[in-house]
């Protein structure tokens, strides 16, 4: 099954720290991603309870496709996310890492529900956020990036394990993301 609504929205909620992340979310891109997540969560729920109207499910799939296409259009010529309709890029790599991670999670979650997402786009985004991981020194942002990669099975478990070893230094949101990553990797014994 796709990620739960709670896990998909974990990265959007409570984004006041670390510095810079909150500013990254005051833009058109986060609105499109949040709308996509809400529709993905509803479709996932309908599938998981095996109840629901096929017309509603088809409408949700169509809406998700429209939002994912809109999200792709919000990228600028350097393959970074735009702040608004004027397509100006985010100021720093942390903001780009967050937007790219959120977008990747949305595309991966949609793909897990059977919505067609171009593999080349997923590979490009995976490479992009992997490179942000290597540039980032903030463990909170690294947790966010690794969580996004784990949504499509692309997270390096060595990096997740390194984060696990430093779990006492993480904020609650990052601990929650770490728990979801460990669960996704089948390492539930490490989540207690």
Description:
It is a single chain. The protein has 192 residues and is mostly helical. It contains nine helices and no strands. Helix 5 packs antiparallel against helix 6 (119-135) and helix 7 (139-150) packs parallel to helix 9 (172-184). The longest helix has 22 residues, at 28-49. The protein starts with a helix and ends in an 8-residue tail after the last helix.
List the helices and strands and how they pair.
Layout: H1 5-9, H2 21-24, H3 28-49, H4 54-73, H5 93-112, H6 119-135, H7 139-150, H8 157-165, H9 172-184
Identify the overall geometry: globular
Q: State the oligomer.
A: single chain
Query: Can you give the mean pLDDT?
Result: 79
Report helical residue fraction: 55-70%
Number of helices: 9
Low-pLDDT windows of residues: 1-26, 84-89
Please provide the count of β strands: 0
